[in-house]
Design goal:
Blueprint: E1 4-8, H1 16-24, E2 29-33, H2 38-42, E3 53-56, E4 59-62, H3 64-75, H4 82-108, H5 110-132, H6 137-140, H7 150-165, H8 174-185, H9 187-193, H10 196-200
Parallel strand pairs: 1-2
Antiparallel strand pairs: 1-3, 3-4
Helix pairs in contact: 1-3, 1-7, 4-5, 4-7, 5-8, 7-8
The protein binds L-gamma-glutamyl-S-nonyl-L-cysteinylglycine (0HH).
Length: about 210
Amino acid sequence: MGKYQLIYFNVRGRGEAIRTLLKDNGIDYEEINCGNNWQKEWKPQMQFGQTPALRDNDFLLVQSNAILRHLARKHGLYGDTEEEAALIDMINDGVEDLRSKYVNLIYRNYENGKDEYIADLPNQLQPFEKLLSSNGADRSGCCVGTKCSFADYNLSDLLDIHVVLAPKCLEDFPILKAYYQQYLARPGVLEYRETEAFKQRPINGNGKQ
Ligand code: 0HH
């Protein structure tokens, strides 16, 4: 098997959960920055005209959640039973719902919408707190079962960007806060976050965060 290639802009954005999954699981990959010649070279190659994209030998896959799921199937990050896989999907879809709201705020409504977004954030985080409280996720760092899955990288990245947007947003959510701290303490995550590539990569493409 050849090395994976992750084709994306030099932002965390929708690439960061994928990057962290790859790094934390010791999966070798090459990063390709499509920002230099996006319109002419890269965009026409992409099935929906967008990235991130993952090249897996001859297979080019786009859509960030499809990429996470593909990697999860191949590398044992999709639970141990069908029920666990379904719950992982459910949580990941919840992550996608909030991420879409976040993207809308950042790229379309930051100045006018930030205060209202932050005021409503507890309502958005509460379902995750409740879901995670049932299986010791605050101790294991895994949102379903006792083995981590792709949804953990996506949810943890979602928490990570919200802590930047609203630094106190986890204060009233002890399970989520402990879960997020477990993620930050994972050796592979810690090591990755110490790299200059991580530290210098902006969260979003327009400088807002
Ligand atoms: N549903 C898709 C997914 O989940 C959505 C992908 C998407 O929105 O994968 N892709 C955007 C890039 S994410 C895209 O391809 C936003 C990052 C913008 C970075 C801009 C450049 C920053 C340079 C430092 N957009 C390009 C396009 O639509 O033409």
